[in-house]
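If you are new to this repository, start here. Below is one unmodified record pulled from the training split, so you can see the exact layout before writing a loader.
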Amino acid sequence: MPQASVIIADDHQLVRTGLKQVIASQPDLRVVAECRTGKEVLALLQTEACNVLLLDLSLPDMSGLDVLKHVRSHHDGIAVLVLSGYPEKQFGLNVLRGGAHGFISKGVDDAELLRAVRMVARGSRYVGPELAELLLAGLDGAADQPRHGALSEREFQIFVKLAEGKTVTEIAGKLFLSVKTVSTYRSRILEKMGMKTNADITYYAIKNSLLQ
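And here is the target side for that same chain:
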């Protein structure tokens, strides 16, 4: 079986080094490149092929969600395994809706990380125990599903930017949408979340550890 190639995207060198050591120690896996920023990822993917992109959600220049959306639109053959310091409950559902093949917390052990990388490299989905419970809760209509779990992938993307304090005009420019379109999304988000202002969005995001 040929080796699966992996690109690691994380802004912390120590994290990248640790991940590379774990992955490169396996005969069926190899790390072909490392990136520190979202722009580095997008530029690298123009010339470097890989099977798996191990993507941190928190990058210094752009959201990992934005990188994920770009990869899904332009590099559909790459499996994206999202890595985060936050628990699955905060971002897991929305990341899967955004097209990721899996979501894994930085707190897992080496064996679970390798299992996740191998699963997505084969084209399968990786879902951890906590996220699996959330998915089942969503199917059952459980009341304890987080409110932001009701947002679509694009709504959640805009929700996070509003929570960060970005204006509608800034978001429109960043996502190449019209101001009217972003305003419509904002209204829909407020309605779904039962909120009235951007301050409500920011408060909720902070309380639920959605800001990185």
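Two things worth knowing about this chain: The longest strand covers residues 29-35. Residues 139-143 have pLDDT under 50 and may be disordered.
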